[in-house]
Amino acid sequence: MVERRLAIVLWLAVVLGLTAGASAETAFETAQKSKVGSLVNPYAAQEAAHDPELAAEGHKLYSSFGCPGCHGGGGGGGMCPPLTTGVWIYGDSDDTLFRLVMLGSIDLQKLGFSRRGFRNIAAPMPSYRSIITKPDDLWKIIAWIKIQTYRNTQNVPSEP
Ligand code: HEC
To answer: How many domains does one find in the chain?
Structure first.
């Protein structure tokens, strides 16, 4: 009897675990499954309005995932290219940036993207497939990069 109950509990745990996993597509799966050019940032409207709250959230995530080590704390570049000059290596579409961070630059190039030769290559951009798992987190980071680019190129001061 006890064994049977245990079996039911285990079975339930497996089923619940599977459904939870199925409903939450990882950012890497999103990048892999979708057609090139089809991804749209769900925060596009707030991004276009340069929403400071969204920017602050995105910036926090950007810092928490270790991007500043290569691109600088404000995205102005460091040992790797700046992200906020308005000049883009593979283009500026949200779809492209999402794929670049998820796949890394080597796998992005395998999809047919090529560098536009603006900058010298310090190293490849690493894939974040096992580090950023929630698509939402990456969309917020991308929104922040775009808002920060706007501030940088239009000389709009950042929030304190
Ligand atoms: C180990 C260093 C490193 C880390 C960490 C890193 N990047 Fe990069 N990133 C690069 C390099 C190098 C390139 C340029 C790749 C190329 O030229 O092919 C790049 C390119 C980019 C670009 C394109 C820039 C442009 O001008 O078009 C974006 C956007 C970007 N990274 C975002 C991020 C984000 C967001 C994170 C954190 C989640 C991050 N990177 C973490 C090294 C890094």
So the answer is: 1
Encode 27-37: b = buried (16+ Cβ within 10 Å), e = exposed: bbebbeeeeee
> How much is the pTM?
0.87
- Write out pLDDT tens, residues 16-74: 555 555 568 999 999 999 999 999 999 999 999 999 999 999 999 999 999 999 999 99
Q: What residues make up the domain containing 72?
A: 26-153
Answer whether 138 contacts ligand 1 (Cβ < 6 A).
Answer: no
pLDDT at 59: 98
Check pocket membership of 66 for ligand 1, CB cut-off 6 A.
Answer: yes
Q: Is residue 158 part of a domain?
A: no
Counting atoms of ligand 1 from 1, which one is nearest the CA of 85?
Answer: 26
User: pLDDT tens digits for 108-129?
Assistant: 999 999 988 666 666 799 999 9
In a domain, 6, yes or no: no
- Indicate whether 1 belongs to any domain: no
Decide: 27 and 133 in contact? Cβ < 8 Å: yes
Nearest alpha carbon to residue 73 among 65, 53, 24:
65
CB contact at 8 A, 84 and 145:
yes
Q: Domain holding 143: CATH number?
A: 1.10.760.10
Q: Is residue 43 part of a domain?
A: yes
